[in-house]
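Can anyone check this?
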Amino acid sequence: MKNITTSRLARQTALALAAVALVAGTSACTNTETPTPAAGTGDGSSAAQGVGAGGRAAAEAVQTDPAVEALVPAALKQKGTLSLVTDPTYAPITFTDSTGAIVGLEPDLALAVARKMGLKSEFSKGDFNGIIAGIQAKRYDASWAAFSITPDREAQVNMVSYMKGGTSVMVKKGNPDKVAQMLDLCGKTVAAQTGTTQALSVLPEFQKQCSDAGKGQITPLILPQQDNVNQAVSTGRAQAMAADNALVAYYAQLQPDVFTPVDSILVEPAVSGVISPKDDQGLAQAFQKAISSLMADGSYQKILGAWGMSASEITSSQINPAK
């Protein structure tokens, strides 16, 4: 999830490199300090190689929930459209397809939430580092941009939880080594990209757990680029790789004939939230109620499943849960 840290920048670099390497048809956007209106979120049909297929359909099938609609602030209800902002450089959470449309897990969730509220949704694209300031200045109603929920952020904006992230593991297609839990990696070679959280802290922690359990040590294979890491797994040089769970989900859907994600492994989980103005508690309550309604009718699970992100499901949505 997006934190303004070195590890976040490393993960985003990995994702950007991955998109270039594997999705030549997917155009990246260049953000400016002043966000500009983006194309509509699209129907999802031009997302890379069908990744996320079914997510948009599940969102569009959502019906207005009167209990949610009743919580929508009057001014927003009169306007009729949620003005949203995101940084679409984080596939498969939010990115741009070959037509320039903003697509991904979050745009589908945002559409579904808006439909529960009886509203339309409209995205603009902006620089991640300026989004909170834009929300505080009331330039937008809310943002879906994979913001990790932290006390510091909760002091500035309201945050309503909708998913969790962390480090996941990916193996060669079919999972020939039957990796199902972290200790199954003991005695194996595990790859990660240089400079990432996985290389700097996750693999050393895996090493400690293997040692504490009296099992064979992991052989870390630290490589300079994410595509090198992927190739190590596909060729058998490494038996597994550790990476951001969103990245793992993306690769698993892009190349299902090469990779299999290990959905049962998720470490260092962090919860993400949709952000809205701190002085608008009513809107935060509407978001929480809408997400809860999506969970109750199964739409939430369908959308996350379509994007290969079922491991990121949470069982309840809360307002400012870090406090």
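Reply from J.R.: I decoded it. Confidence is low (pLDDT under 50) at residues 3-48.
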